[in-house]
Amino acid sequence: MPAPANTLSPAVEAAPNQPRSKTDLFMSFTWLALQGFGGVLAVVQRELVEKKRWMTREQFVEDWAVAQIMPGPNVVNLSMMIGGRYFGLSGALAALTGMLAAPLVVVLLLAALYGSVADSATAQGALRGMGAVAAGLITATGIKLIAALGKNAMGLGVCIGLAVLTFGAIALLRWPLAWVLLGLGGAACLRAYRVLGRAGNGSEA
Fold first, then answer.
1. Is the pTM of this model over 0.85?
2. What is the per-residue pLDDT for 29?
């Protein structure tokens, strides 16, 4: 099977492995989805980057950024991007089915169970505890991925500065996400475009 075209920035290396088949995609994303209670970002990064090695950290950061600005759940978008990259439309559908089929059954069963204990103080306390754990998982994964920004075309300092501005705009100033994406996201895209353009002109010279 031919390797997919590299559509990432020049500084990003190719991943060492790739899915063997559409069945491999389906089973892998099914297993991933069943682990993703609360902290799905941490699970996705561990499974795709560290265990299966379908992506490098740099590829994950770039693809996750695209998945976040697209409509719909981030991890579902990412699964379809990976499936489509290797097997086209059928691969995207295989990954999507893996992400949704088994979790749908589990969620329906849990919803029925939760309906009978929703007013219980024990159940409400357990949910608050799971929320704290999920926040910790996401924070830990974000810190782990900071090193991948060192190969970003804009440089580590600019990337961290944009991350701090984004956090301040959303968490502190409570700006709408759409405006933050259009403003800071647009400025970051323009900056990266100019840096990559200068690098391309320099290499041609």
1. no
2. 92
